[in-house]
Write a structure and sequence with these properties.
10 helices, disordered N terminus, Rossmann fold, globular, 11-stranded mixed beta sheet, 22% strand, alpha/beta
């Protein structure tokens, strides 16, 4: 028994956290983010296919360098180097196991003494550089928040790959925890990055491309998954053109390239994109879109949010976007009491050393692993319906189908059909 007011030393807490991380999940087993808790809903379970993972780089040349634009130099150009993490159904060599170690960084941008960009590692249930199975699978493109990283939703990316998807997560330049820079870059480039990655992967998928994805990706059958600013970008990509007033959010009127009613923008609508999952999408509370802009979305969309979101907003934020996308078949999963973090992995042990780093991944009243499992369940159903024509509609019509008894507390589910 410890006396009143006794506190664990920080070093002891770190040791306990690391010990918990090694032993959590199943007794005697190493923990991997995304493993199913005993109360996980049915479709959270990992699929039957082994998973491989590789890191690739795509360079988008001759792009507007908005952060260095000025009156004297209104159109500076540069190359946007996008680091991509790719998960895919794999063929494992004899003795090869589904295990890798991912390296990410803490912090909220470079040169912040309160939250330095300290590297940390965590386990992944995927075989690094394994050979692909050789069949064609639908493509899922994943876009992180501001700031974020391509690795912060590995519980979901690995899970989807095990169910027969090629999943490509983007590190958006000037928007990661390592290189966070001015916000205008994120506002301008999310849609452009998403479409560039789609076109790049489609080229890699062609026979004879020389890329390991040749013959592996069905790039005519695509979903976008976006978190926060990634959700903003996903909606903007599928027809939610920003308002005339929001063009002023980027200097020089350069955001007009993403504006509703701009013929160039309207012509860029990509019919290969069949579904969107928008986690806590930013922009509703900030009046990025008017009614006409939101009406431009016709792609089936699953919104996922917390009703206490203090970043993107809920009533005047995500809920407004959900209701305003009147021409889309859309669903809204709400975590009652959750804030802005219904998307990422649980905090790794390294996050415990800094409250701000911890809170950038955690939820105050929800267990992150439970959120992860519920997300896996609903995203599996939603993407299965729209990318694979799988008979999973019952999991969305009867929104508690697949949940163990007494395991659906704290959730709200809404569905609105296109007008």
């Amino acid at each position: 028994m410890h006396g009143a007011g006794w506190k664990w030393p920080r070093a002891a807490v770190a040791v306990l956290v690391l010990a918990a991380g090694v032993g959590a999940g199943r007794a005697g087993a190493q923990e991997y983010f995304g493993d199913a808790r005993p109360d996980a809903p049915e479709l959270a379970a990992r699929g039957a296919l082994p998973v491989g993972v590789r890191t690739l780089v795509a360079e988008n040349k001759d792009q507007l360098d908005i952060l260095h634009a000025s009156a004297g130099q209104p159109d500076p150009r540069y190359t946007r180097k996008l680091v991509l993490e790719v998960w895919y159904p794999a063929r494992l060599a004899a003795g090869k196991k589904e295990h890798t170690v991912y390296t990410d960084v803490l912090g909220s941008g470079p040169n912040d003494p309160k939250r330095p960009n300290t590297p940390f590692q965590f386990n992944g249930r995927a075989a690094r550089d394994a050979a692909p199975l050789g069949e064609r699978y639908p493509l899922v493109i994943v876009s992180h928040g501001y700031p974020g990283s391509r690795l912060q939703m590995s519980y979901l990316t690995e899970n989807l790959a095990s169910k027969g998807y090629v999943v490509v997560a983007i590190d958006h330049p000037e928007s990661t925890r390592a290189d966070k820079a001015g916000f205008p870059s994120t506002l301008l480039n999310r849609r452009l990055d998403d479409l560039f990655v789609l076109n790049t992967v489609a080229a890699w998928a062609r026979p004879g491309s020389g890329n390991f994805l040749s013959g592996v990706v069905d790039a005519d059958n695509v979903a976008l998954i976006g978190y926060s600013m990634g959700g903003y970008g996903a909606l903007n990509t599928v027809g939610a053109g920003i308002s005339a007033a929001a063009v002023a959010y980027v200097p020089g009127g350069k955001l007009a390239v993403n504006q509703q009613g701009n013929p160039e923008y309207e012509a860029a609508r990509d019919r290969r994109i069949k579904a969107v999952v928008a986690f806590a999408p930013w922009g509703g509370e900030q009046n990025v879109w008017d009614a006409a802009g939101l009406a431009g979305v016709r792609t089936p969309t699953l919104f996922i949010a917390g009703d206490q979101d203090d970043v993107a907003g809920y009533k005047d934020g995500v809920l407004k976007l959900f209701k305003g996308a009147v021409n889309a078949d859309r669903y809204l999963l709400t975590y009652v009491g959750a804030r802005h973090n219904p998307a990422p992995n649980p905090p790794s042990p390294a996050h415990w050393s800094n409250p701000d780093d911890f809170q950038s991944y955690s939820e105050p009243v929800w267990d992150s692993r439970r959120i992860n499992n519920i997300n896996q369940h609903y995203v599996t159903a939603f993407l299965g319906i729209h990318l694979k024509a799988a008979p999973l509609q019952a999991y969305l019509d009867d929104n508690w189908k697949g949940f163990p008894k007494r395991a659906m507390l704290g959730l709200e589910w809404q569905h609105l059909k296109p007008q």
